[in-house]
């Protein structure tokens, strides 16, 4: 670990973070323990990753992000009306609840039920924080650098 190293794509980083939206805490690892992941590996939204680039060990920052800056703007094209028959007959289809779909390639897709009728269900596949202001606090605890290709 090199404490003088600036965080780059490909580096493994251990950090604490806190996400807050409109005064409501969404996530906080300061209380539960740090997380470790590879920057650029898709573990967090690229817009938040971009804020981490260049940070150093022991650096602590808080970012007040305007609506859409953290998880993108709300995209009306990601709101889909699906036939109720595509859901299990015993599924609790309650507006505001999250549903998960398994795609043919094995990946999962999460959505939020916006409305549930007798014939169809409206599901929003936007990130739940899309289009909302977010406060992102981060403290870098460790960086394991990857060798750079010459």
Write up what this structure looks like:
The chain has 150 residues and is mainly beta. It folds into 2 domains: 12-72 and 129-144, Chitinase A, domain 3 (Roll), CATH 3.10.50.40; 76-124, Beta Barrel (Thrombin, subunit H). Helices cover 7% and strands 40% of the residues. It has 2 helices and 9 strands. It has helices at residues 29-32, 46-52, and strands at 12-21, 24-28, 35-38, 60-65, 79-83, 98-102, 108-116, 120-124, 134-144. The strands form 2 sheets. Strands 1, 2, 3, 4 and 9 form a 5-stranded antiparallel β-sheet that branches. Strands 5-8-7-6 form a 4-stranded antiparallel β-sheet, with no helix packed on it. A hairpin with a 2-residue loop joins strand 1 (12-21) and strand 2 (24-28). The radius of gyration is 19 Å and the shape is elongated.
Please outline what is shown here.
This protein is mainly beta and 150 residues long.
Strand content: 35-45%
Helix content: under 10%
Q: Please identify the top-level CATH class of the largest domain.
A: Alpha Beta
Sheet having the most strands:
5 strands, antiparallel
For this structure, the quaternary state is single chain
Mean pLDDT figure:
91
Tally of structural domains: 2
Radius of gyration: 19 Å
Structural class: mainly beta
Unreliable segments (pLDDT under 50, ≥5 consecutive)? none
Distance between the termini: 21 Å
Shape: elongated
């Amino acid at each position: 670990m090199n404490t003088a190293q600036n965080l780059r794509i490909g580096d493994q980083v251990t950090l604490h973070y806190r996400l807050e939206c409109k005064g409501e805490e969404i996530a906080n690892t300061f209380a539960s323990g740090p997380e470790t992941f590879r920057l650029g590996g898709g573990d967090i939204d690229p817009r938040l990753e971009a804020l981490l680039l260049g940070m150093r060990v022991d650096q602590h920052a808080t970012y007040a992000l305007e609506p859409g800056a953290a998880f993108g703007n709300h995209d009306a094209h990601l709101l889909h009306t699906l036939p109720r028959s595509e859901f299990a007959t015993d599924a609790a289809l309650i507006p505001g609840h999250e549903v998960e779909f398994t795609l043919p390639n094995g990946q999962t897709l999460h959505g939020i039920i916006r409305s549930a009728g007798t014939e169809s269900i409206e599901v929003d596949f936007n990130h739940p924080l899309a289009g909302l202001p977010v406060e992102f606090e981060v403290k870098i605890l460790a960086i394991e650098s990857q060798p750079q290709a010459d």
